[in-house]
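Extended Data, panel c. Modelled sequence:
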Amino acid sequence: MRFRIGGAAVTLLALLTLVYLVAPTILVFGMAFNSAPDLSFPPSGFSMQWFQSYLESPVWVDATIRSLVIGVVSCALSVMFGTAAAVGLARTRGPVFNAISAIIGLPLVVPGIIIGLALFDLYSRMHVVGDLTAIILAHTMLGVPYVFVNVMASFTRFDFRLEQASLGLGAGPWSTFRHVTFPGILPGVIAGSFFAFISSWDDLAVTMLIAGSTSRTLPVVMFSGIRFNVDPTIAAVAAILTAVVLVLAAARTLLERRMLR
């Protein structure tokens, strides 16, 4: 009897937690399709007017394209550098491994506002505040730790004897990496790339300080809109941001399941 009560309590707690986590998303989508001229819930009617307003605004569209470009390029660079770092350190242990891993993981533990202030000071001295390349490099720095951590996790299940067998049979280092090592760590690369893109797509604290007034991304424009002019279009933009994350999460899950078959 006690086990049944305990199981029911755990199930109820899990359901309440799920509702608590999902409720903001439901509210956002509800306000995005609301026909009322303000941010309100529940919706008074169904309307696509705020999405139309978003598509007709050059400010929103330019910010979206800029966010996608920064996210995709910084994600690709993060995968390149993060995977290379993980491959280089996969066979290393001890103080050197701990020190390098701690340095790579610093962006995960240092508050974004501190990183943003440090980068703003550096970029202002270099006169590159608002430069798209500088923003991409900053987002790459934020994304590399996610790739590194996930690829290192894949290496914990990787059999290094496969590499030795490949090299022993005459394959070169690059051929061994491409046909043996990389397929083995691919789930970690995919997971890391997902988190690297999301960290760039949703970043506000760092980008707000280094984007200037000419290279604002979607979260920065949203924040400015909330501060100075509460427009229901923001709900539509938030719904789009959320939808992109959900689609990428579903795609990542499907890819991982296919690779595990």
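DSSP finds twelve helices and no strands in the chain. This feature is highlighted in the accompanying rendering.
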